[in-house]
Amino acid sequence: MSLFERILRVRGLDTPDKQQHFLQPSYERFRHDPFLLPDMHAAVERLVEARQKQENITIYGDYDIDGLTASTVLIDAFESFGFEHVDVFIPNRFVEGYGLTVEAVEKIAATGAQLIVTVDCGSLSEKEIIRAKELGVDVIVTDHHNVAPVQPPAVAVINPKRLLQDYPEAYESFVLKAEYRKQGTESRGKQSNSTFQILNSDLYPFLDLAGVGVAFKLVQALQTRLDGLKQGQEKWLLDLVALGTVCDIVTLVDENRASVFWGLKVMSKTRRPGLRALMAVAGVEPSTVNARSLGFALGPRMNAAGRLETAQYALDMLRATDTASAMEKAELLDEMNRNRRTEQDKILEEAVVQAEQYADDPVLVVSAPGWNHGIIGIVAAKLLEKYKKPTYVLEEMGEEAKGSARSYGDFSAADAIRAADDIITKGGGHKLAAGVTLPTKNVQAFRERVNTFYHNQKLSNQAALLLPKADASADFSDITEVLIEQLAQLEPFGNGNPQPIITSEGVTVIGLRRMGSDAQHIKLEVRDAQGAALQLLAFSAPEYFFVEVSTRVTVWYQPDVNEWNGRRTVEGRLLHLEVS
Q1: 286: which of 40, 201, 340, 371 lies 20 to 30 Å off by Cα?
Q2: pLDDT digit of tens for each residue in the chain (580 aa)?
Q3: How far apart are CA 11 and CA 13, in angstroms?
Q4: Distance between CA atoms of residues 142 and 216, nearest Å
């Protein structure tokens, strides 16, 4: 059995049928019936009415990429459907803050809006939606975040997570269990020739859609009732769906995998001047764009606008209609991203000094004035990576502190915040990422509370969960360009479908080279027992990577091809090593 076949098998792709559906995911096969999502019928009926009356509609977005791409998906589709009075409201992180707010609702109502359609937010916005109703404004929520036990009084709350709350026994890792599935039926959209391949069940098959994915399902549903966007033409929106899905780090399986797989193909020939310009300034070649390009090149540049000033700049870039203005906006985002990195490095340096003071705490809580709360989420992720601890980073703003958390393993950042409800102003989020606002005077009490919560969980061996897990072990003679071409078939890589990791045991270091201005990077040359050698690179390498020549080690790495001056060399990206 070849190394590639072993990797397929360990990932559960052990039959030709499973391999075909994964390696070549059919758009139609995974185009699940949108009307299986909660409240989709009610949302479509209300929007059909709005289209007939040409009502004033405001799309209420979010300042991250998921919200920005979702907003653009709806703007583009609504224009195709013939809606004539559509505005977009993107909240400012430093003014309105995250999500739907009463103040924003009142601003929107004052413009004459009759309907608000949220994207990537709104599921927990009961008081804000009540206020909208008082002002004569209907609300349709499209979202994918946590839901309330009782839904807010919106016209519709389209959120796949509602099904997970109502039918927890039916799903495993957000996918409908096999016993609830019966393939082969079709659902025909009302007053339409379109058909959706669905399951013989009234439950939606896959729940981990990003916000942009939920917005896209609304578009598919509207296609069954409104003219203007013919069946198949919605695929031109998949570049946006792919961008938002990858950058929101939802699992890249089932419908998400199909959307990103085909969305990357759309991205490579995108009609959007803004995305073409953004790829140009980011150094991304459209013909080779992949999920890593979205997550590490395009995504940070778009997010920089909302982190430093306003995400409206990023939305304007996505909506640009001519090359010149698109390039101008993309270059602005590129400049903002450089500024973001400079500010981020400064905060991180200060945060590391403070983190050393709490070296014995299993959960890090650091805070200071002047730490831009648009950036501290990235700093929290960097501290987690460095110290292997859940981390909360707070900006002190006078009497109030606002922060972001990053976690891993079995420790829930959001649950720890809930355990401090009596000393915070507000907070919430997910297991691995959350936000909190609290009185500055309570920062120390909050530090103590989340660490007590950690101890009460009686967690053990958590740092080991951050170590890479190999798909297979191999000799270096197996690491060839042919293998790398085979592994590329598993793209797009991301959450739920990581790039394959290989381990090679008992290899000998035969060369070591430090690189970088501060000698922070490393290139190791290692040889296995059969005499085959491989070069392994690590950027910003931890100190334990710098071993002596002749040391025997076990290495974990991701194979890749390095192209330099016309030469192609098979190498590996070093992830971890242990001295044998």
Answers
A1: 340
A2: 999 999 999 999 999 999 999 999 999 999 999 999 999 999 999 999 999 999 999 999 999 999 999 999 999 999 999 999 999 999 998 888 888 999 999 999 999 999 999 999 999 999 999 999 999 999 999 999 889 899 999 999 999 999 999 999 999 999 999 888 755 444 444 444 444 444 446 899 999 999 999 999 999 999 999 999 999 999 999 999 999 999 998 999 999 999 999 999 999 999 999 999 999 999 999 999 999 999 999 999 999 999 999 999 999 999 999 999 999 999 999 999 999 999 999 999 999 999 999 999 999 999 999 999 899 999 999 999 999 999 999 999 999 999 999 999 999 999 999 999 999 998 887 888 999 999 999 999 999 999 999 999 999 888 889 999 999 999 999 999 999 999 999 999 999 999 999 999 999 999 999 999 889 999 999 999 999 999 999 998 999 999 999 999 999 999 999 888 888 899 999 999 999 8
A3: 6
A4: 10
Q: Is 526 strand, coil or helix?
A: strand
Identity of residue 397:
M
Q: How far is CA 410 from CA 117, 174, 418, 454, 504, in A?
A: 35, 18, 16, 10, 29
User: Three-state SS for 93?
Assistant: coil
* DSSP output for 29-78: TT---GGGSTTHHHHHHHHHHHHHHT--EEEE--SSHHHHHHHHHHHHHH
Side chain identity, residue 286: P
Listed in sequence order, the residues at least 6 apart from 391 whose beta carbon sits closer than 8 Å to its beta carbon are: 355, 363, 364, 365, 366, 380, 381, 383, 384, 405, 406, 407
- Rounded distance between C-alpha atoms, residue 365 and residue 358, angstroms: 8
Instruction: State the DSSP string of 148-161.
Output: -SS--S-SEEE-TH
Cα angle value 577/556/486 (rounded, 5°): 165
